[in-house]
Write a structure and sequence with these properties.
27% helix, alpha+beta, elongated, 169 residues, seven-stranded mixed sheet
């Protein structure tokens, strides 16, 4: 193996490690961190599209408010991601992996709502490292009673159906 091939393989391994770390830190941040503009910059591109069970948002500035409103429905959460399949093509990548999210409702009932699904993420290498440019969580199954969504939070713009289920983010 020549030095050029070794450098290429090392960069691929480094990229995979950085992407895996970014995705793991993102899920952990949902359970621990303040969901503000600094948080959004640490994970998302300016033009990100995030498709979540609580709705789809476009642009990094819109993400903290929507995710924050969704997370406020829960007293505590634990988000777990499985090993993603990562494909890298230059300065772009995709990651596809399982996600399991456990939520304790904040409605006073302390009921637990669990969702499991597939997270599909597109990433871009930026001057600040890898960032999420598009993401979609496809919920496959749930267990327990989901929280009631407030008006304006739901899978369709303006949908606030009391029957709408929250899967996670």
């Amino acid at each position: 193996m020549d030095i050029t091939q070794m450098r290429l393989e090392l960069r691929t391994l480094t990229d995979r490690a950085e992407i895996t770390d970014l995705l793991a830190r993102y899920l952990r941040s949902l359970d621990e961190d303040a969901l503000d503009e600094e948080w959004a910059r640490a994970f998302h591109t300016e033009d990100v599209t995030a498709e979540m069970p609580v709705g789809t948002v476009h642009g990094r500035d819109a993400v903290p408010a929507t995710v924050g409103r969704a997370m406020a429905l829960f007293d505590r959460t634990v988000h777990l991601g499985g090993s993603p399949v990562i494909e890298i093509a230059g300065d772009r990548a995709t990651a596809r992996g399982p996600q399991l999210s456990t939520h304790v409702l904040a409605d006073g009932s302390k009921d637990v709502f669990v969702s499991a699904g597939l997270s599909e993420t597109e990433l871009v290498r930026t001057a600040d490292g890898w960032r999420i440019s598009a993401t979609a969580l496809r919920v496959v199954w749930t267990r327990g009673t989901p929280p009631r969504l407030p008006e304006g939070l739901g899978p369709r713009a303006g949908a606030g159906s009391p029957d709408a289920a929250v899967g996670s983010h």
